[in-house]
Amino acid sequence: MADTLIFAIPKGRILDDALPVLARVGIEPAPEFHDPKNRSLRFRTNRADMDIIRVRAFDVATFVAHGAAQIGIVGSDVIDEFDYSDLYAPVDLNFGHCRLSVAEPVDEAGGHQPRPSHIRVATKYPNITRRHFERQGVQAECVKLNGAMELAPSLGLARQIVDLVESGRTLKDNGLVETEVITQVSARLIINRAALKKDHARLGPLMSAFRDLAAEQRQAA
Amino acid sequence: MSETNPDILPAGLADLLPPRAEQAARLTRNAMDVFAGHGYDRVSPPLVEYERSLASRMQGTGRQHLFRMVDPTSMRTLAIRSDITVQVGRVATTLMASAPRPLRLSYAGQVLRIASDQLAPERERLQIGAELIGHDNIAAAQEVVRIAIEALSQAGVSGITVDLTLPDLVDTLAGTAFPLVPTEISSVRRELDMKDAGGLTALGADAYLPLLYAMGPFEVAITALAAIDAGGVLASRISALRQIVAGLPDDVTVTLDPTERHGFEYQSWFGFSLYAEGCAGVLGRGGTYAIPDGKGGEEVATGFSLYPDGLLDMELNGGDGSAGKLFLPLGHDRAVAARLRAIGWRTLAALTDSDDAVALGCTHRLDGNETIQL
């Protein structure tokens, strides 16, 4: 199979940490990739049989799940949100650490009021949020936002939010406090299920290289 | 809300137009001919059954995906089939319970599920399959895998990959060599299914790690699997897999992924999935399983189903086999036309003298006894 392998990586938070990891397994994007003025979305790499695409985090999972890209790196928050059956997440790359948490206004947090059976939550992660509150017997009505979740409580859109928390700084600046951690998040290698079966010759060694690298780093830590 | 187009189809449903409808029919015909050639007799169960009967033979999440309605005649709940295999199971263990075993049955038809997802948006699919009822031994597995491959290659599919798996491996190991308490089994299985080595370690299930590395090209993977010391539990499985693979055609790629669970909710010791070059998803699955007979017992079986919708847009070797479309002008010789049809021509007879052969897609025109290229 001589088709070009497509490696999908997300814009933003994870990208800076991902590039050195890619370099360690021998994948270097073409120089244009680092040019901020370049508007391309697809780039050549030092491997003739591999291109890199740079897309939004949620789209990394979608491209790989559909097999449009065969392999990618994405946060475990995205994997949990989609719960795509056609993704393997074989390696915890041990960077991009943060957590997915519930937060609410400082003045309303704490206290021991009985839990309501129905709440409204502003989030980019409606599926994780719904599942999380379902386990507690609470029906969560999610208001899907794509950013600036922290504004929702003060403007009356929803009393609680579910969002990624790294340092907790943004929450604090917006008068919110983290009340519950839903899950810890880190960057994962993902591979399309069918692609790994059909093209194990190329994807298998890549998977092993990332796995060895992650194990090595864990041992060093 | 604005009025929507009244002719639009509901989400996940589509018309098959030419040439896709023809391709679907041809794939079905080819596969059914292969099954018939190997002694499988065709059955054709109804589209709708009592929900209770269908659901009682379905495992896992399948029964959540049934379209249901109330039968005005019996006031019982009906369901539209989402899997013909369970209907064949019912036929085999009831109406054909006394037929000699092994019982070889084949089927083809449309199935429907109530919900779809972004990855597989279609709600209606074509299902074609064959089931060998009464045996789940190595010989049965060999026969079924071979026939599945033959059905695809007869239809012109090339670059076939067969991925073998051992669906009940984790359950077996959890009860013997690598003990797990029942509550841990599903977590371990999930991490194995995601191929997540770190997740297995976090669960304290390091014993299962080598299984993750025993995947890939068959020879490499089976050697890795053989190196795992599981107190002999694996030895018989390994030998069985080797025997199954030994009989497969050379041009088929064989891979092994012993912990693949996805799509194998009801299979027992052996399962396989089929992939083809140029087709993104899985084309079919099969394996060994047990059919509940409705009286508390069960009967073993081996079989597979193909879901060939992914092939409808592919150029398959052997193409549509037609020599071309031949325009028959008014007053043509009917005997000549009949002879040409008999050797594979498709003819299109003029109804008026203004019929336009080219616009109607004809490649040739009949002139006396001659076919003239247009």
UniProtKB/TrEMBL annotation, chain A:
Signal peptide: none annotated. It catalyses: 1-(5-phospho-beta-D-ribosyl)-ATP + diphosphate = 5-phospho-alpha-D-ribose 1-diphosphate + ATP. Keywords: Amino-acid biosynthesis, ATP-binding, Cytoplasm, Glycosyltransferase, Histidine biosynthesis, Nucleotide-binding, Transferase. GO terms for molecular function: glycosyltransferase activity. It is an enzyme of class 2 (transferase). Residues 56-210 form the ATP phosphoribosyltransferase catalytic domain. Pathway: Amino-acid biosynthesis; L-histidine biosynthesis; L-histidine from 5-phospho-alpha-D-ribose 1-diphosphate: step 1/9. It comes from the Bacteria. Its EC number is 2.4.2.17. It is found in: Cytoplasm. Catalyzes the condensation of ATP and 5-phosphoribose 1-diphosphate to form N'-(5'-phosphoribosyl)-ATP (PR-ATP). Has a crucial role in the pathway because the rate of histidine biosynthesis seems to be controlled primarily by regulation of HisG enzymatic activity. Belongs to the ATP phosphoribosyltransferase family. Short subfamily. Heteromultimer composed of HisG and HisZ subunits. Lacks the C-terminal regulatory region which is replaced by HisZ. PANTHER family: ATP PHOSPHORIBOSYLTRANSFERASE, ATP PHOSPHORIBOSYLTRANSFERASE ATP-PRTASE. This is ATP phosphoribosyltransferase. The lineage of its organism: Bacteria, Pseudomonadati, Pseudomonadota, Alphaproteobacteria, Sphingomonadales.
TrEMBL record, chain B:
Residues 26-222 form the Aminoacyl-transfer RNA synthetases class-II family profile domain. Gene3D superfamilies: Bira Bifunctional Protein, Domain 2. The keyword Nucleotide-binding does not apply. The keyword Transferase applies. One of its GO terms (molecular function) is glycosyltransferase activity. Keywords: Glycosyltransferase, Transferase. Homodimer. This is Histidine--tRNA ligase. It comes from Blastomonas aquatica.
